[in-house]
Amino acid sequence: MTNSSRSAKGQEPCLRVIPLGGLHEIGKNTCVFEYGDDLMLVDAGLAFPSDGMHGVNVVLPDTSFLRENQKRIRGMIVTHGHEDHIGGISHHLKHFNIPVIYGPRLALSMLTGKMDEAGVSDRTTLQTVSPRDVVKVGQHFSVEFIRNTHSMADSYSLAITTPVGTIIFTGDFKFDHTPVDGENFDLARLAHHGDQGVLCLFSDSTNAEVPGFCPPERSVFPNLDRHISSAEGRVIITTFASSIHRVSMILELAIKNGRKVGLLGRSMLNVIAKARELGYMRAPDELFVPIKQINDVPDRETLLLMTGSQGEPLAALSRISRGEHPQVKVKTTDTIIFSASPIPGNTISVVNTIDKLMMLGAKVVYGKGEGIHVSGHGFQEDQKLMLALTKPKFFVPVHGEHRMLVQHARTGHSMGVPENNTLIIDNGDVVELTPDSIRKGNPVKSGIELLDQSRNGIVDARVLKERQQLAEDGVVTILAAISTDGAMVAPPRVNLRGVVTTADARKMSMWTEREVGWVLENRWKQLCRNTGGKAPEVDWMGVQREVEVGLGRRMRRELQVEPLILCLVQPAPAGTPAYKSKAMEEKDDRPAPRNRGGRHGGGGYSGQGRREPTPAPVRSNIARTNTASVNTARTAVAEKVESKPVSAEPEMPAGRTRRRRSAAV
Fold first, then answer.
1. The whole model's pTM is what?
2. Which residue of 105, 155, 279, 638 could cross-link 80, Cys pair, CB 3.0 to 4.6 Å?
């Protein structure tokens, strides 16, 4: 037994449940079960980026814990095929192997394509399961798959038998008594485990704030039928591609109303192909028309089914709304139906897409009042029924934002679960379970990994910060020509893009000259090392960094802007004539530097990346500036110090940012 599987209060063996994603958020659901030397994963999803994550395509949980313990991973369980449950698997397989993945046929069929595309098919074995199948994972876990109902076909809840007791992990669910595919929720197995004794329930909290029961999926059928049958021209419908039941009903309505179907969007094409192949969707081949030929079909007989319900910039409907789609242009006779609700964070994008479509003259049908969308997640009464059937001793709400978790916990209390037996947790928290106790253990590392649109490159915090700076305040580029003996041999060239500033070009050039001159005068000894050869070894990156930091401070203080500053140094041979700067002939109105305390807090970067004390007070910007200019500068600085002392401002390390300060500071 490893120490990690023993409770924090002693040597009593315990089960550790560790969510790495899906808590205090919507998406990237990933959970780890640990007992002894066995680790078992349940799902590994992704989330979509927020507005500030420029250039980020998907958000994944930090899997450092799994990478460090990859030799202990015995397998993975997949509950269903939504992207927020399987979207991260192919990426994770690039970093660690998973011996076997058990899951529904539809989910694993979709996962196969993702793994082939990522080139990781040889990193695991896929094993499909059926309702009530039981699989053994490692030495300590037995998992029974219990059919449930959700917005996606072939979905399961889990009964996990462990040495400390039975855990019910609901996955995403609602109680739909009239499922589109006829596959009913297996209430009998839930009740059976409830009678036998459930140690802990981990239950979906997404709609914990909504009273009542979630309406059945079939309830949208008559409302969609009404809008499709009354449409005078083309019908354009957007929904989640993975909502197999919704797509099945739309195809059924197309047949009923005599319309041919054109499909747009890669995910829509892939999901429908997989679902038809596996028998989860039935539609004749002649129902579909290639999108390049759809204009040959009369508008009254056309139905276009596409992605874009969340306003994704590259999705089919978004491109149509901007007039950028090569085959489909909006007509004033079109009826466009949004059969989906916005995911939190996507509302603005969806509303903007709707506005653009309306401006083009189309009739747009959207919103809860139209009855054209229902959730796949249970409401409060669904959650109460789950609690009543399973009768858990302990209860942990999962899959939802914080307010949802809190409300779900209150629902649990109303159903008889004591408050002391309920935990509200966050990603990285460790739930330690024994037959008689539940507690939080020491947390593991958690967080996020950001992937760019290639889904290969990791966007780290530094890159994301730079992109945010570019978007908010623009960029300043500097080209400085400096000789290897530490002289500025030409005036720096300064270029501003996207920067809103009252400073004119002359002032920006003067500030830049001063920054370059200060670095050469006060930091050159630390940034240049004589190796005994013909040319000294210069830390040009250090020179660039010093100039960037200094000018950044100046712009924050003087202009209250914080653009991204990029300094490029063009080295020149030693002995190149120095540029005679006129910057020091102007009165320097910046706060007086005290070991550059007003700007660099006692020192800049040395060639080795250490902080070094400033070797000398500020002198002229250029070593070759004449004596009169030096005296003038010293006098101006001294007067400034006497009239208005300036307190030192500590420097931030490279890559850090500080809050903007007013001009008074």
1. 0.75
2. 155
Contact 200, 433 (CB under 8 A): yes
H or E element at residue 480 = strand 475-483
Distances from the Cα of 89 to the Cα of 66, 95, 125, 278, 410, angstroms:
12, 10, 12, 22, 33
Half-sphere exposure of 651 (CA within 13 A, CB side): 28
Beta bridge partners of 200: 167, 394
User: What is 50-76 written as a DSSP string?
Assistant: -TT-TTEEEEEE--HHHHHTGGGEEEE
Between CA 220 and CA 373 the distance in angstroms is: 6
- CA dist 590 and 523 (Å) reads 19
CA-closest candidate to residue 24, choices 606, 448, 632, 499: 448
Contact 440, 432 (CB under 8 A): yes
- Dihedral over alpha carbons 562, 566, 569, 570 (to 10 degrees): -130
d(CA 48, CA 349): 13
Alpha-carbon distance of 662 to 191, in angstroms, equals 64
Report the SS3 class of residue 464.
helix
- CA distances 357 to 303, 338, 387, Å, are 17, 12, 44
Q: Which of 162, 165, 169 is nearest to 190 (CA)?
A: 169
Rounded Cα gap, residues 140 and 163, in angstroms = 6
Are 304 and 337 contacting, i.e. CB atoms less than 8 angstroms apart?
Answer: no
Q: How many CB atoms lie within 10 A of CB 570?
A: 12
Place of tokens 């997640």: 377
**Contact status, residue 469 vs residue 552, Cβ threshold 8 Å:** no
Helix (H, G, I), strand (E, B) or coil at 432: strand
Condensed to tens digits (0 to 9), the pLDDT of residues 394-410 reads 999 999 999 999 999 99
Residue type, 350: V
- The answer for residues whose C-beta is within 8 angstroms of residue 532's C-beta and 6 or more apart is none
**Measured distance CA(568)–CA(565) in Å, rounded:** 10
Residue 389's pLDDT is what? 97
Report the alpha-carbon distance of residue 509 to residue 568 in Å, rounded: 15
Evaluate whether 559 touches 501 at the Cβ level (below 8 Å): yes
Q: Are 172 and 206 in contact (CB under 8 A)?
A: yes
* DSSP label of 220: G
Please state the rounded mean pLDDT for residues 371-397. Answer: 96
For 504, the 3-state DSSP assignment is coil
Let me know: does 295 contact 322? Beta carbons within 8 Å: no
Residue 279 gets which letter from DSSP? T
Residue with tokens 């100046």: 554
**Which is it for strands 335-338 and 73-77: parallel, antiparallel or unpaired?**
unpaired
Q: What is the pLDDT of residues 216-244, one digit of tens each?
A: 999 999 999 999 999 999 999 999 988 99
